[in-house]
């Protein structure tokens, strides 16, 4: 941001290791913060190699405490649903798709795995210090309550100390991202 003059704009991707991506169009304010909304157009560029997730060992999946999932894991197959889920678990990698998803947090080793429940619905098992699926469920339920909007319903405010994605307006519900 220090390379942009007050009132200048920055268009930048916000992408994560789960595979969600959106482009933010930010305007630099005179206080040194930049804020703006995500674009309606789904524009994509090739990810630079250093932006990929770090190498991980092979996980032993399906361990941990089990419970019924409150959301259909296939919501992460939708680009907007994936974007929202990724906000809640910014250091996680997503493996699989459909009803069988694994989320692996590269920072803590936490994991969440989902699979169909023979009795109906889906079962999630979580292991580690972060309850990844709990966080994803909370974000997805908030998104669904808002009508499941496209990424353009979200905005981003960035300062030297904080990056916050918000829904609706800067005072709306939001998620702090790693700086």
SSE blueprint and pairings:
Blueprint (H helix, E strand, L loop, with lengths): L8 E7 L5 E8 L5 E5 L26 E4 L10 H10 L3 E6 L2 E6 L5 E6 L5 E6 L4 H14 L8 E5 L4 E5 L6 E4 L2
Antiparallel strand pairs: 1-2, 2-3, 3-9, 4-8, 5-6, 6-7, 7-8, 9-10, 10-11
Describe the structure.
The chain is mainly beta. It is 13% helix and 35% strand. The protein contains two helices and eleven strands. The chain has helices at 79-88, 132-145; strands at 9-15, 21-28, 34-38, 65-68, 92-97, 100-105, 111-116, 122-127, 154-158, 163-167, 174-177. Strand 2 (21-28) and strand 3 form a beta hairpin. Helix 1 crosses helix 2. The protein is elongated. The model has no long low-confidence stretch (mean pLDDT 90).
Task: Supply database-style keywords.
single chain; 179 residues; mainly beta; 5-stranded antiparallel sheet; 11 strands
Using only C-alpha atoms, the radius of gyration works out to: 17 Å
Shape, please? Answer: elongated
Helix/strand structural class? mainly beta
Termini separation comes to 13 Å
Strand neighbour order, sheet with most strands: 1-2-3-9-10-11
Helix content: 10-25%
Helix and strand element order? EEEEHEEEEHEEE
Strand content: 25-35%
DSSP helical segment count? 2
Q: Mean pLDDT, nearest integer?
A: 90
What's the story with the biggest beta sheet?
6 strands, antiparallel
């Amino acid at each position: 941001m220090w390379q942009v003059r007050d009132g200048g704009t920055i268009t930048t991707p916000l992408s994560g290791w789960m595979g969600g991506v959106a482009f933010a169009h930010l305007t630099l304010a005179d206080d040194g913060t930049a804020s703006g909304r995500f674009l309606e157009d789904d524009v994509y560029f090739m990810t630079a190699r250093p932006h990929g997730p770090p190498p991980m060992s092979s996980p032993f999946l399906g361990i941990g405490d089990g419970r019924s999932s409150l959301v259909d894991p296939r919501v992460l197959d939708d680009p907007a649903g994936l974007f929202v889920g990724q906000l809640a678990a910014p250091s996680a990698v997503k493996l699989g798709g459909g009803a069988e998803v694994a989320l692996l947090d590269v920072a803590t080793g936490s994991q969440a795995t989902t699979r169909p429940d023979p009795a109906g619905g889906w079962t999630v098992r979580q292991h580690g210090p972060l309850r990844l699926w709990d966080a994803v469920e909370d974000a997805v339920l908030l998104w669904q309550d808002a009508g499941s909007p496209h990424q353009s319903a979200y905005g981003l405010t960035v300062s030297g100390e904080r990056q916050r994605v918000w829904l609706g307006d800067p005072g709306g519900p939001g998620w702090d991202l790693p700086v």
